[in-house]
Amino acid sequence: MTPDDEELERFEKRARALLEESVARIDARTRSRLNQARHAALDAAARRRRTPRWRSFGLAPAAGVVAALALAIVLWAPRHGQMLPGAEGPSSAVEDLDLVADGETFDLIQQDDGGFYEWAVAQADAGSEATS
Amino acid sequence: MSAFATLASVYNTPVAMHGDVDFTDSNTTTDSRALNQFLASVELKAFKIAQSALRHEHDALDAVQDAMLQLTRAYADRPAEEWRPLFYRILENRIRDMQRRRSVRARVMAWLPAHRDEEDDEPFDPITQAPSEEVTPPRRLELAEAMTALESALHELPRRQRQAFLLRNLEGMDVAQVAAAMGCSEGSVKTHHFRALKALRARLGEFAP
Fold first, then answer.
1. Cβ A30 vs Cβ B128: under 8 Å
2. Partner-chain residue, chosen from B132, B143, B166, that has the shortest CB–CB distance to A27
3. What's the pTM value of the predicted model, to 2 decimals?
4. How far is Cα A21 from Cα A24, in angstroms, rounded to an integer?
5. For A11, which of B36, B47, B208 is closest by C-beta distance?
């Protein structure tokens, strides 16, 4: 071992002793906080262990099952002739949506200047006269 | 005593702890006690290492607390001999995150009008902040000066060198454990450690401890 190495070794020993002393002199407040942090971490780990894994996801599985059942009923019921009250058929809802979303049809009604409504009233009057 | 010997003795030492949770499973209780013992054995040194890197007491406490939480949450089931390197790797990651965040914050704050430094929100309490061991005033002053010089020199070191030096000399880990904690080869640890030693010696000069 060279003198330089010996000097480095002595330096390292002194530095280590100083570091250890500085650890021993950590103040009471910091020690208390570290102690609290340790117990908080251990308590969190204990709570985690005591909670069953499926419960850590809350009600997500139950909600998923309910949503899947609801979707299955909606898809399955019309095909087997069990119409929901007020439903006209499997495609009626989709057609209604198409009508509402169709901006062209709405524009035609707007441009009609009320002629359509006059015609509809006249048809209704004619119908009621014919029946009476 | 090696870190492994310390951990092995943990299992043979039943310790009643404040804050322990009442477990019904005896294995869980043993694990919890071992974890408590392990964390108690590293917390002060970990705080010093974090403080040396961050030079801020609150940030150092936060870093140690986060490392404890992450270890207990994610790695409590791992073999006890893996805890030490894992814990110090987590701690180093937290320190790096904080340093990055701090540099971003400093850049942002440089653009803002003068702001209040929120470092010391709590009032000074001479009782709680007193050092834990009684030391004579001249000796205390001498130690404080030497420690300040050493901490300053440590802070100037490159991150990997500082980490290798502190894990070897403060935590007392062997080269293999330090390599596991730093995620590098044992050869790299030896190189970092030797360079740190040379740099500290050169920097401290007459102030050498």
1. no
2. B132
3. 0.62
4. 5
5. B208
Q: What is the Cα B87 distance to its own chain's centre?
A: 10
Positive or negative, the CA dihedral A67, A70, A75, A76 is: positive
The per-residue pLDDT for range B58-85, each reduced to its tens digit, is 999 999 999 999 999 999 889 999 999 9
* Among B12, B10, B5, CA closest to B36: B10
Q: Give which of B15, B26, B59, B169 to mutate to test A binding, by max A Cβ within 10 Å.
A: B169
Rg of the Cα atoms in chain A: 40
* Tokens at B49, concatenated: 């290492």
How far is A56 from chain B, CA to nearest CA, in Å? 13
Q: Do A20 and B170 touch (CB under 8 A)?
A: yes
Q: Give the separation between CA B152 and CA B148, rounded to whole angstroms.
A: 6
Q: Which amino acid is at B13?
A: T
Of B36, B128, B209, which is closest to A38 when you measure between CB atoms? B36
Dist CA B44 CA A34 (whole Å): 8
Considering only CB atoms, which chain A residues are within 8 Å of B71? 41
> B43 to chain A: nearest residue by CA?
A34
Q: Which residues contact B69 (CB under 8 A, 6 or more apart)?
A: A40, A41, A44
- Cα dist from A121 to A107, A116, A128, whole Å: 21, 9, 11
A-B interface: how many C-beta pairs under 8 angstroms?
Answer: 129
In this prediction, residue A107 carries a pLDDT of 55
State the Cα–Cα distance between residues B30 and B176, nearest whole angstrom. Answer: 27
